[in-house]
């Protein structure tokens, strides 16, 4: 990743990444740190935050990483976390809404609370964190917001009605806020990752074993995504190089949505959930 951008090109930027302790968002945090940004992460679980801070420091060689616990469903938690970061680093220029919850569940057996839980974490969490960071940091100063979306809602993936509905609405938030906050110098964009190797989402949603080979073959760029692919898109969107881009959700999936069979239907785990008698 080092060679992609000029070293230090994000120096001076202060980034808050929700969900930054694990998965794709950990990769985003690492990218921003490597290129000179100061990074704040929050997650529900303290041990995850502590472990992430330690390994981000080691992997990036930077000590400009700060973290605290926060449940993005709770406004008071968010207010407290954002105040904590402002005290530590002074301001936030870039907000990356990546906190998400997910599980595979058939529509027929999904409880109202299961649906609500994912909507509250993914969608309402994006709304609430954006509201607090806007009021405390971006209003009057400008900045950049990046919402982490998905391609679930583009393909219509089985067992993902809750998550796909939340992500579709997040894409709508991206467009609405780009229009509403543009005159304040705030750009709002999204990133929709495809199958990213080494993440919980990938393990849940893709078939095991030999099938992953044909999966790669059906992706136009013939490989699975890497966390650094998403990090690089986020760094570009946050940088001055994207200063005239707003309201866009960029699909980063090697072209997969154009050609992908609905692989989740081939996953033994998904087939079992859809038809327990198998
Ligand atoms: N299948 C069906 N329903 C499920 C479920 C599953 N695998 N997991 C949770 N639910 C339902 C619960 O049964 C409950 O509904 P109910 O009250 O009607 O029974 C509701 O969802 C809330 O579950 P609960 O475990 O109390 O919520 P939580 O706030 O503690 O945690 C998650 C919610 C999404 C964070 C949790 O399921 C989780 O940790 N998931 C894995 C981690 C993850 O999502 N990583 C991101 C990958 S993209």
User: What is the rounded Rg?
Assistant: 18 Å
Compute the number of helices: 11
What's the CATH architecture name? 3-Layer(aba) Sandwich
Can you tell me the number of structural domains? 1
Helix content: 40-55%
What is the molecular shape?
globular
- Largest sheet entry: 7 strands, parallel
- Could you spell the SSE succession in H and E letters? EHEHEHEHEHHEHHHEHH
Q: Give the CATH topology.
A: Rossmann fold
Strand content: 5-15%
Bound molecules: coenzyme A
Mean pLDDT: 93
What characteristics describe this protein?
2,4-dienoyl-CoA reductase [(3E)-enoyl-CoA-producing]; about 280 residues; Rossmann fold; alpha/beta; 7-stranded parallel beta sheet; transmembrane; 7 strands; 11 helices; binds coenzyme A; transmembrane helix; DECR2-like
């Amino acid at each position: 990743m080092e060679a992609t951008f000029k070293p230090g090109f994000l120096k001076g930027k202060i980034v808050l990444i929700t969900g930054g302790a694990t998965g794709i968002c950990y990769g985003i945090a690492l990218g921003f740190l490597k290129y000179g940004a100061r990074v704040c992460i929050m997650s529900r679980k303290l041990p995850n935050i502590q472990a992430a801070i330690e390994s981000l420091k080691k992997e990036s060689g930077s000590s400009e990483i700060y973290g605290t616990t926060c449940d993005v469903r709770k406004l008071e938690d968010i207010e407290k976390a954002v105040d904590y970061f402002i005290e530590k680093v002074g301001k936030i220029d870039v907000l990356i809404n990546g906190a998400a919850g997910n599980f595979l569940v058939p529509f027929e057996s999904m409880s109202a609370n299961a649906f609500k839980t994912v909507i509250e974490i993914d969608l309402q969490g994006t709304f609430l964190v954006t509201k607090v960071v806007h009021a405390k940091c971006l209003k009057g100063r400008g900045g950049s917001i990046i919402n982490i979306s998905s391609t679930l809602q583009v393909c219509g993936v089985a067992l993902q009605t809750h998550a796909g509905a939340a992500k579709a609405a997040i894409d709508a938030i991206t467009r609405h806020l780009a229009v509403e906050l543009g005159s304040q110098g705030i750009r709002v964009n999204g990133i929709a990752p495809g199958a990213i190797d080494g993440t919980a989402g990938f393990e849940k949603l893709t078939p095991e074993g030999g099938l992953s080979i044909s999966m790669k073959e059906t992706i136009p760029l013939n490989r699975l995504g890497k966390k650094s692919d998403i990090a690089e898109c986020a760094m570009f969107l946050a940088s001055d190089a994207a200063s005239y881009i707003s309201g866009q959700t960029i699909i980063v999936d090697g072209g997969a949505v154009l050609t992908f069979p609905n692989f989740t239907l081939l996953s033994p785990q998904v087939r079992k959930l859809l038809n327990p008698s198998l």
